Each structure stands twice: as C-alpha cells, then as structure tokens.
Amino acid sequence: MARAGLTADRLAAAAAELADEVGFENVSLSALARHFGVRDASLYSHVKNLQDLRTRVALLAGGEMIDRIAAAVAGRAGKDALAAFADAYREYALEHPGRYAATQIRVDQAVVADSPAMRRTAEITYGVLRAYGLEEPDLTDAVRLLRSTFHGYCALESTSAFGAPRDVRESWDRAIDALHVALANWPRGGHHRPLPQVPR
C-alpha cells in the first residue's frame, strides 16, 4: 500500500540519504520503492525515470553545498574567501559522499538555467575569482582549475589513497596556498604563451 504524502521532493531527499549510505551509483528506483514500501510503478507518478531522480538529487545536493559555501565565504575576499570556499567544499564532499557524487554528474543546461541553486553556485564561484581581477575566458579556465583540484583531492582522500605520512590537511592547506598564488599571477588573455626556447 502506497504511503500518503509521497512527492518528488520527498523521493529526492530519500534518494540523497540512500546515496550517502550505499553510494550514488547504487541508488535505484527499486531500492527507493523498497524504502517507502511501495511498488516501483508508484514512483513514476512523481519522477519520470532514474535519470530524473538522479538530476533531482544533484540539484538538492548542489543547493546544500552552495548554502554551506556561501555561509563560509560571506564577508571574505581574496585568499580568505578562496580558503573558506575550499574548506566548505571539502567538508561537504567528505561528510556526504553520495550527495557529493551526485553534484558531479552532467545536468542538462536547460535544467541548470532554471535552477536557483545552480545559478547561485556560479555567482558565488565566479565572484570569488573576480576578486583576483579575472575576466572571461580566464574565469572559466580558473573555475575548471579549482573544480578539478578540489574534486581530485576529495576523491583521493575519500578512498584513503594518499599513502605518504604527511598529514592530508596540511597538504590541502598548501594546495590552497598554491592555488592562490596561481590565481594572483594568472597568465592573462586565455591564450597559450610560447614556450621558451631550450638550448640544444
């Protein structure tokens, strides 16, 4: 018997919880139906398919993550804002691995454009980087640098892949220092500089 009050938002919230428990890739409509004690078919009144559910989880998680980041960077600028952004990002990724994995999936651009959370994410991220005097196309390049650095580090840390005795938090802080230096000394213009000629 279907539970009363089942909605798309409630399904997404339950799927997000399940993702943290079993991994985002293991979230399925069948698992969610079992959680609510209903048949799979009952869910299709609220979500179109698994991709729709995953997108909803991605938007939910993205909203949670940017709320945390926004609170961390409020009133900060430059390196302080960058470090606060990075720390909030890392904390969310490590505390909510399933939700975080959802934020990394590709979401249709039309959905992104209609999502207040996704727009807010772009505004805050680009705002932190504009404080370094960056403009397009350098802004997009810098966003990609930050995202790939943060994601790569968190992905490795979450699986205990760093084997050296050096404390991972110390390395993280140094990585943020290095990113600050890179952003403050960004090569302008979005074009590759010619490599110096090496004597043969």
From TrEMBL:
The keyword Transcription applies. Residues 5-65 form the HTH tetR-type domain. InterPro entries: Homeodomain-like_sf (IPR009057), HTH-type_TetR-like_transc_reg (IPR050109), HTH_TetR (IPR001647), MT1864/Rv1816-like_C (IPR025996), Tet_transcr_reg_TetR-rel_C_sf (IPR036271). Pfam families: TetR_C_33 (PF13305), TetR_N (PF00440). This is TetR-like C-terminal domain-containing protein. The lineage of its organism: Bacteria, Bacillati, Actinomycetota, Actinomycetes, Kitasatosporales. Residues 28-47 bind DNA. Keywords: DNA-binding, Transcription, Transcription regulation. Coiled coil: none annotated.
